[in-house]
Amino acid sequence: MLAAESVGLVPTMGALHEGHLALIHRAILENHHVYVSIYVNPTQFGVNEDLNSYPQTLETDLQKLRSMCKYYWDNQNVGQITAVLTPTTRDMYPGLKPSSEIDGLGSFVNITPLSSILEGASRPVFFRGVATVCMKLFNIVQPDTVYFGQKDVQQCYVIQRMVEDFHINTNLRVIPTVRERDGLAMSSRNVYLGRRRRKVATVLIRALRVVRTSFLNGITERKELLSAAHEVIGEELGKQIALPAHLRAVFEVDYFSLANPKDMTELDHVHLDHGAVLSGAIKMLPIEEPQENEDCGTGKGTTTVRLIDNLRLEQITSSAKKKNIQKSEGLLSF
Fold this sequence. Notes:
Blueprint: E1 7-12, H1 18-30, E2 33-38, H2 58-72, E3 80-85, H3 89-92, H4 119-122, H5 126-141, E4 145-149, H6 153-165, E5 171-175, H7 194-200, H8 203-216, H9 222-242, E6 251-259, E7 276-284, E8 305-313, H10 318-322
Parallel strand pairs: 1-2, 1-4, 2-3, 4-5
Antiparallel strand pairs: 6-7, 7-8
């Protein structure tokens, strides 16, 4: 590898979907060499979380990457996937066996207070594990640029803070969320949903989009904006509870957040010059009374499926209005 050639890194836990491939595609377009890591990192799973059932599809993932390599092989104007890293846990944690306990022993990277709010409040060790494994991967690869998806918006803030605070010589690129046709954000965990819960799972993005519409119509106060989201949630939940147990898909709201795009602190009022990051999380509860031959998803519907999503709230400029362009799901930048 020549000194002047750029290196991009796309960290993943495998079970690659179109969202991951969009990150890799962007990295190929912007770098000479692209490294893709596939590693299910145990330290970002809590003691009672789904580490053991997390989808692991290495051979399928490698085939998708081979197809990308073949697609770009003869194009001299773009980079290439130079290596796929598939380390073992012993490789990544050569000292103490990694711990998922909140007060567990080991060498960890903690980015506070960002790691303790929202996702961190629900999953106390999650961002500690994410920051730790990313620090290790950054040290191993030493990339010029790292690529993350906007779906995991708080994770992007944690990584950016880590890069800045530890003077890591890399740039963070955040790529817009890739969605299914009905708006559901692509996620490796979607395979757990099954048909019944999958139909209801779009309630989260529907709620966020209603808030966005309210904002674009001039509402800027937190209480009014988030009440619009809870109205959508309450209506859908009421419909599901009214159904017979063998037909319904019930869920719980974890949080809705209206945060400052600079540091993820909560806002009481959205300033039009700055906008906001609107995010939310729901938990699709286990399927009740699964029917014979019903598509219940991986895990037969017994697993609670946690879904997250977010939108960036921004003003639409006058020129954008004339072109009927909506920016409000737009790209997060640092």
